[in-house]
């Protein structure tokens, strides 16, 4: 068996966001989160619901297994029964996310996607993040605009939760007294110094930082032979 790639560690880290989730709708955005959600369904989260992004529930191979009308989708969204994994153009120490613009909102330096559904996603159901290129431009001291709501803006939100942030360098959570970002694990081959250098704010760091767990032999087979035999995951994360 060939060596496990960085992309495959990222797939595992994303899949773990849905471990033992029960009958919750997974909404992964991006290639590696999508492979991760399907892997979770095939292994440790068999009750996970997967959608085609429109109106159907599907199996990991795309077979239709049910209808998901929009009104039911909204009920899952607003009732805490969906777990989204979004991207972020910027994210700060409290988990505030920006996908709208860079610079001042009235005269932005760069226009991005727009706020879209980020406030509803983050206030009403668990939201994790996938960031394929960890850098100081993304992990910023303060986001230019709050789209996804972080812990310092979420008072009173019943279902607000940010289980994890996964990047190409490691996994991060908010298991700290002030709900600021903490380094939860480092991917193999990555050093703490690399993560600190690529982050614009001071991370909480435990005394002993674990390594992101490797895939089991069966998980690796599923990733390589069933879920992504074309190795498209390498387009998001290189060696």
UniProtKB/TrEMBL annotation:
It comes from Streptomyces chartreusis. The lineage of its organism: Bacteria, Bacillati, Actinomycetota, Actinomycetes, Kitasatosporales. Gene3D superfamilies: Glutaconate Coenzyme A-transferase. Pfam families: CoA_trans. Belongs to the 3-oxoacid CoA-transferase subunit B family. Keywords: Transferase. One of its GO terms (molecular function) is CoA-transferase activity. InterPro entries: CoA_trans_fam_I, NagB/RpiA_transferase-like. This is CoA-transferase. Transmembrane segments: none annotated. It comes from the Bacteria. The keyword Aminoacyl-tRNA synthetase does not apply.
């Amino acid at each position: 068996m060939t060596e496990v790639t960085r992309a495959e560690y990222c797939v595992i880290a994303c899949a773990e966001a849905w471990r033992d989730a029960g009958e919750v709708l997974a909404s992964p955005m991006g290639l590696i989160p999508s492979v991760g959600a399907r892997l979770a369904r095939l292994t440790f989260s068999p009750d996970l619901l997967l959608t085609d992004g429109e109106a159907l529930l599907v199996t990991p191979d795309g077979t239709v297994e049910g209808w998901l009308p929009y009104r039911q989708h909204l009920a899952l969204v607003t009732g805490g029964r969906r777990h989204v994994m979004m991207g972020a153009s910027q994210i700060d120490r409290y988990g505030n996310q920006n996908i709208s613009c860079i610079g001042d909102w009235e005269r932005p330096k760069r226009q991005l996607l727009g706020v879209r559904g980020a406030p509803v996603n983050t206030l009403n159901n668990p939201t994790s993040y996938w960031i394929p290129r960890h850098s100081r431009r993304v992990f910023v001291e303060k986001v230019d605009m709050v789209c996804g709501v972080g812990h310092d803006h979420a008072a009173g939100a019943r279902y607000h939760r940010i289980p994890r942030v996964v990047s190409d360098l490691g996994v991060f959570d908010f298991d700290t007294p002030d709900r600021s970002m903490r380094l939860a694990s480092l991917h193999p081959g990555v050093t703490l110094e690399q993560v600190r250098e690529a982050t614009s704010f001071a991370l909480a760091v435990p005394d002993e930082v674990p390594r992101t767990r490797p895939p089991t032999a069966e998980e690796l087979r599923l990733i390589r032979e069933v879920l992504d035999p074309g190795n498209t995951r390498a387009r998001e994360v290189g060696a």
